[in-house]
Amino acid sequence: MQISSARSHGIDYVPCHYNDSRLWFRGPSRPLRSPYVACLGGCGVYGRYILRPWPDLVEAQIGSTVVNLGVENGCVDAYLNDAGALVTAATAKVVVIELSGLHNTSNRFYATHPRRNDRFLKASSALVSLFPEMDFTEIHFTRHLLTRLHAICPERFCIVAKEVETAWQARMRSLIAKMNGDVYLMWFAPVPLADNKSKPQTDEMQPTRELLSALTPYVHRLVEAVPETWRVVDECLDVPPLEVARAAHLPGALAHKRAGDVVSTAIWSSLK
Length: 272
Hints:
This protein has helices at 43-46, 54-62, 76-80, 83-90, 125-130, 142-152, 154-177, 209-212, 244-247, 253-271, and strands at 36-41, 65-70, 94-98, 110-112, 120-123, 182-188, 221-225. By secondary structure, the chain is an alpha/beta fold. The chain is globular.
């Protein structure tokens, strides 16, 4: 069973599929009758430990169906590798794509799991040649991979980082091109979107305005939600003891409310 289909915190996530997708989405399932809004992204869209994630709040505000297509630990590859998810998103009148980490994208140096994009599958011969001293059998997650590569040689790591950026940018353009409705890119994080990057991040590579400049001409708008209160654990919710570390990095109800307000206002013009 996918992690996103598990039950926790007493919340019934009602896992569902759309259009024969292999991905698990948070339910209850919504009717795919046009016009509807599709929300794509990772944990920030799915809403673990949250009774009403921001797609639900947007639906209540705009009066139109909003389909939560968030995939926990998923990135752009999860959608490009799944025909059911693609057709569900492509048919929407409005598509909101949460910007997620670049490091979870397959590239010419390493491959990630097609659905759980945070999982490292294998290194290519090019990466093995670039880092011959690295033991890739010990690596299971992309963040761990990048941290280890940087520790071995920051200079060679920059080559990998540049490839990761290029691959993510290309995949995002491919995903956007497959959409028929108005596309909005969404930055949902506890810190503002950075203007540029002075040095490669070593564990969780995030997009910057500089990197997004090649994508913004193809979308309707970039939406930014940077809540003052971010974490689930700051709200004293009953997170299971074994999942406290996981919850520490996830947005809480107040953050989701802020995101819902920002997105509702931004996409209103596309729904008229």
